[in-house]
Design a protein that fits this description.
Layout (H helix, E strand, L loop, with lengths): L3 E11 L2 E8 L2 E3 L14 E3 L4 E4 L7 E10 L10 E10 L3 E6 L7 E5 L5 E11 L7 H4 L4 E9 L2
Parallel strand pairs: 6-11
Antiparallel strand pairs: 1-6, 2-3, 2-5, 2-8, 4-5, 7-10, 8-9, 10-11
Length: 154
C-alpha cells in the first residue's frame, strides 16, 4: 500500500484558475503558461509539464485550500473526492508550484521534489465541504479543497 512521503497545505486566493507548474530559481516555469485555457465543458487543460484547472470561485476570487502530496507509489482512490484530472507530467525542476494562474506573486503552495527531470503520475482531486460534513464544515460550510497527488512513474 502506498504512503505519503511529504505534503504541504495552504490557502490560496483564486480568481478562477489554479496553475500547477514548476519553479526554477525564482521563476515559475511550464509550457502551459500563456497557452490555452480549459475549453468549454472542460475543467483542466494540460501540457507535458504543467496544467491549469478551473476553480469554482465567484467573480473577483475566493479563498480555496490546496494540498500537494508526494507519494511513494500509486495512491488508492478516494470516493469522497471528485477526480478532475489524472495523467503524467515531466518535471525537470526540483519544486512544484501551485497558485492562482493570474497572480504569480500571490499565495502559493510549494513542495520540493526528490531531484529534477522525472516523469510523475499526477492526480488532481476536488471536494467542497458542505454543512453535512462533520466538524470543520459546520464552521465553514462550502469550503473548497484541491488535492494534487504525485508519484514517480516507473
Amino acid at each position: 500500500m502506498a504512503t505519503i512521503i511529504e505534503a504541504a497545505t495552504g490557502a490560496i486566493v483564486s480568481a478562477g484558475y489554479l496553475l500547477i507548474a514548476g519553479v526554477r530559481g525564482d521563476e515559475v516555469v511550464g509550457s502551459i503558461i500563456g497557452g490555452e485555457m480549459p475549453g468549454p465543458g472542460a475543467r483542466v487543460a494540460a501540457e507535458r509539464d504543467s496544467l491549469i484547472a478551473e476553480t469554482y470561485t465567484p467573480k473577483g476570487g475566493a479563498e480555496i485550500y490546496v494540498r500537494v502530496e508526494l507519494w511513494d507509489g500509486s495512491p488508492s482512490s478516494d470516493s469522497e473526492w471528485t477526480e478532475l484530472w489524472t495523467g503524467n507530467l515531466y518535471l525537470d525542476v526540483e519544486e512544484i508550484w501551485v497558485g492562482d494562474y493570474w497572480e504569480e506573486d500571490g499565495d502559493v503552495v510549494n513542495l520540493r521534489l526528490p531531484g529534477p527531470a522525472r516523469n510523475w503520475s499526477v492526480s488532481l482531486l476536488h471536494k467542497i465541504f458542505k454543512s453535512a460534513d462533520a466538524g470543520f464544515a459546520e464552521v465553514f460550510p462550502g469550503v473548497q479543497f484541491y488535492t494534487l497527488r504525485l508519484w514517480e512513474t516507473k
